[in-house]
Amino acid sequence: DAGVIQSPRHxxxxxxxxxTLRCKPISGHDYLxxxxxxxxxxxxxxxxxxxxxxxxxxxxxxxxxSAKMPNASFSTLKIQPSEPRDSAVYFCASSQYLQGSNxxxxxxxxxxxxxx
Amino acid sequence: xxxxxxxTEMTATEGAIVQINCTYQTSGFNxxxxxxxxAGEAPTFLSYNVLDGLEEKGRFSSFLSRxxxxxxxxxxxxxxxxxxxxxxxxxxxxxxxxxxxxxxxxRLMVKP
Lengths: 116, 112
What we know:
The complex is a heterodimer of chains A (about 120) and B (about 110).
Chain A: E1 5-7, E2 10-13, E3 19-24, E4 31-38, E5 42-50, E6 53-56, E7 65-71, E8 74-79, E9 88-95, E10 106-107, E11 111-115
Parallel strand pairs in A: 2-11
Antiparallel strand pairs in A: 1-3, 3-8, 4-5, 4-9, 5-6, 7-8, 9-10, 9-11
Chain B: E1 3-5, E2 9-13, E3 18-25, E4 29-37, E5 44-49, E6 53-57, E7 60-65, E8 70-75, E9 84-92, E10 100-102, E11 106-111
Parallel strand pairs in B: 2-11
Antiparallel strand pairs in B: 1-3, 3-8, 4-5, 4-9, 6-7, 7-8, 9-10, 9-11
């Protein structure tokens, strides 16, 4: 089975530019999560969706960040305008959920973003 | 909110046993996950505990005490490839669904 697919794997761009990160979740998974990982702050949840609907975006750092999930097989995370402090590894994860179940989140390989 | 603590770094010797601890505070516990993350790679699922006790999976075991807000991951017969970060994550019953809060991770270095 194909896992969570993210693109691009690496992105280097200049500050002020728009950055778009893409994610294809595992087929049949009804939850999708966007995380950011840095050495200083670890793995932070930015936003998550259930059945394509955003449930909690309290982790989105500021208005420069936005996320969409137009259908069950695709999501984007946009940063506009980008700043050097946005440099991090961005992970997308997906899961199924049943109350009390051990369904884990499955992570994509991440996008390593560098803002110059 | 949630507070999850685990040691930042640990070192152990190949062939030995190591225990990585995790303590947490949550308003409504609904499961604890351990993930392994090699440098430059994605986190991968290792184990899940929701009831008190020990869950064993080959060389890896995970223990949970809900009353103490405590879990540990036990790695036996350490191999060099076990050098990685180990992330403890807690699911809160107050969350709408499968949202996890991750600890900062414990970087384990296995030496020959």
